[in-house]
Amino acid sequence: MSLRPVAEFAQTNIPAPGIIGVDWEERVNFERLRDYRIGRAKEALGRSDLGAVLVFESSNIRYLTATHIGTWGYNKTERWALLTRTGEPWIWDFGSAAKNHRMYSPWLIPEQSRGGNNGLQGAIAPSSGLPAGSAAEIAAILREEGVAGMPLGVDVVELPMLRELEAAGIDVRDGQQVMLDAREIKNRDEILLLSQAAAMVDGVYQDIYEFLKPGVRENDVVALATKRLLEMGSEQVEAINSIAGERCSPHPHVFSDRYVRPGDQAYFDIIHSFNGYRTCYYRTFAVGRATQAHRDAYKKARELIDNAIALVKPGVSTDQIARLWPKADEFGFSSEMEAFGLQFGHGLGLGLHERPVVSRLNSLDNPVEIKPGMVFALETYWPADDGHSAARIEEELVVTEDGAELLTLFPAEELVVTNPY
Fold first, then answer.
1. Which of 101, 173, 285, 381 ranks highest by number of CB atoms within 10 Å?
2. 393 near 379, Cβ under 8 Å?
């Protein structure tokens, strides 16, 4: 395999145009973005055997309706949206948010922005009749829009609501695949938002590089990163993985209050949302000095990710990438299920895990074709020979007609040492 020089991956042709709109430069066109998303959803629905999709998952609601009520409402199934083959989006929102959207979201049909309540995940018992009332409203719309005889696709649902939909005579099926089909290919505006989100993390990694030294704790880095992202305009800081020293192997996927010590290897994952569009962006550092075990582990993780990036282009299937990566037992795990998420790829968009998903667990038998306009992250991991350190690298890519463009630009060609002695 002929690899591009690693340094080439540190450049990109994808703009990161800033966080505000201006009259002197075309940046994100939100009207075009909304039109594109609803168009993609209608096309995906039209290709399916469903008459409509009913969505409760926050990123699907936003994709269909371009509405958002803050991270406190994220994935509580307390708001939902409906799209039929023949109509325009309906939204049932939390209390006064419905009136707010009628006032400030003119792309919605006012009569189709309603208040809704299914019982606050059971806090109001189903015997209240709330799920039954919601199901009756939905069934009436399906009849009015001429799709009552067709299956209804649902992404995620609480059991009382599912039972009431079925009791109303509705054939409920999986709607998540239709939504993922729609969200698979990003337009220019989505790519610009993803690029801007990554640019914000570039800056946070510079702050971490300057901050990371003995005496700070893993959770201090989390606080620093969260503060900086919110100052930069982040809408939501979903998670900061902050892992150092003996906690690096195996990866615990959660930060602690451990103090960073001289000679630690440390890695971080920054997951945040800008206008709904997410990052997943790992970097690894050595604190003060790096051992040969640190450098060897990093070199291996870099080799694994570079080989994968070099293969990315339209027409390649995800099994081809997954086969480049080691089997679970080659890096200390008993099964591909246990090693899942370490040699890994996943789509990025309004959701953290979209298509394609790349791993030896699923891709060898169920490959997905890589297409222009896909945006996904590739992430690799390698444990160090010292028995407790490890290297973790992640790069976000936009698939172009010719290959891939990088969104994640903080230096990662070689292991970065912070505050060297």
1. 381
2. yes
